[in-house]
Amino acid sequence: MTRKLRWGVIGCAGIAVGAVIPGIQQSETGEVVAIASREISKAEETAAKLNIPKAYGSYEEILLDKDIDAIYIPLPNHLHMEWSIRAIEAGKHVLCEKPIALNAEQAQRMVDASRAAGVHLAEAFMYRNHPRYERVKEIIASGEIGEVRGMHSVFTFNNAGDSSNVRYRKEWGGGSIYDVGVYPISAARMILGSEPEAVTVHALISPEHDNVDMMASGILEFPGNIALTFDCGMWAAFRNTIEVLGTEGRIEIPEAFVGNPDFLVYTNDGKREEKQPTLNQYSLQADEFALTVWGETSGKFAPEDAIANMKVVDACLTSAYSRTRVLL
User: Fold this and answer.
1) pTM score above 0.85
2) Residues in domain Gfo/Idh/MocA-like oxidoreductase N-terminal (predicted)?
3) What are phi and psi of 212, to 5 degrees?
C-alpha cells in the first residue's frame, strides 16, 4: 500500500517508544513523521532512535504541523482529554491511550469535539484488533460451548517498587482499574455484546502509593444473569487471562491481552487448541484506524464505545472507594 497516514506522537512514554511507534512503522498504512516532548533533547533523542524525521520541543508545535494527519497520545491519564481536544481542534485525527479519559463526562466531551470537527477519535485497546476475538465470538455464537454462564478475566503485574511512577499519582488518574482493569472490562463488553447493569468492586487502597487502588477484584452484572468476575493489580504477579464459561464447555485464553494469541476450547469431546496468527496488535490497530479515517471501513468500535467503557470504570471506582454495589 503506497498511501500512508502521517502520524505525530505527543510524548515519549514507554508504551509509545516500545510498542505503538514501532507498530505504526511496521503497519501497512502508517508512518510516524514527528514526535514532541516538553524537552527538545528528549524528543530529538527519541526521534533519532526510532528514525522519526521531525522532533518538537512542545506539544503545541506538533499540532501546527500541516504534514501530520493523526496524533497518538500516550500522556498520563489526566492529560488525555486536554490534548485530545486540542489535537482535534487542530484538525487531527486522534488515537488516545486507554483509559481515554478520567471519567465518562470527559470522554463525552472528547467524542462531541471529534464529531463537531469531523475527525476520527479512537481509544487504544490494541488487543481488540487481533482476529482471534472474532473467532472467539464465532465459537460462542455457534453454540459449541452452550449457553454462556459467566466470564472471568485478570490482568496483573508488579511495579509497586517504582514509587515515582505516574500510575501512583491519584490526581493524574493512577490506579490499577484505570491502568489494567480497563482490559477485562472492555473485553467482557466486547465478547458478551452488552453493557453491565451493576458493579461491585473491592480494592487494596495503598497509602504509600498516594491512595490509588493497587489491586482490585470485582463483579460486573450483565443482562441474562451473566457476570464477569475480574481482578486487576499493579502489586501482584503477572498474568493476563480470559475464560468464557458455557453450559457445555469453555474457552480459555491464557494470554488474553499480550503474548501468545493461541487459545483453548474445552467441550465434552475434549480439548482443542485454536492456533492463531502471530500478528503485531499495534500494527493492526494502526491499520484499522487509518482505514476508518479513509472511510474504507466503518470501524470496529465507534468513539461512543469509549464513553460506555468509562461509565463502567466510573462505577467500579465509586464501588471500590465506597465499598458499595453501584447500579448503572
Assistant:
1) yes
2) 5-122
3) -90, 165
In this structure, whether the domain defined by 131-327 belongs to CATH 3.30.360.10 is answered with yes
Instruction: Say if CB 84 and CB 96 are below 8 A apart.
Output: yes
Q: Kindly write down the DSSP assignment for every residue of 87-139, as one continuous string.
A: HHHTT-EEEEESSSSSSHHHHHHHHHHHHHHT--EEEE-GGGGSTHHHHHHHH
C-alpha cell at 143: 453454540
Residue 133 cell numbers, joined: 476475538
Query: Known catalytic residue: 98?
Result: yes
Give strand pairing partners of 57: none
pLDDT digits (tens, 9 = 90+) for 54-75: 999 999 999 999 999 999 999 9
| DSSP for 19-30, written as a single string | IIHHHHHHSSSE
Q: Which of 54, 92, 98, 311 is catalytic?
A: 98
Spatial neighbors of 94 by CB under 8 A, at least 6 apart, are: 70, 71, 72, 73, 84, 87, 88, 114, 119, 120, 121, 122
Mean pLDDT of the chain: 97
For residue 306, what pLDDT is reported? 98
SS3 207: helix
Q: What is the CATH code of the structural domain delimited by 5-127?
A: 3.40.50.720
Q: What is the pLDDT of residues 309-324, one digit of tens each?
A: 999 999 999 999 999 9
* CB hemisphere CA count around 46 (13 angstroms): 29
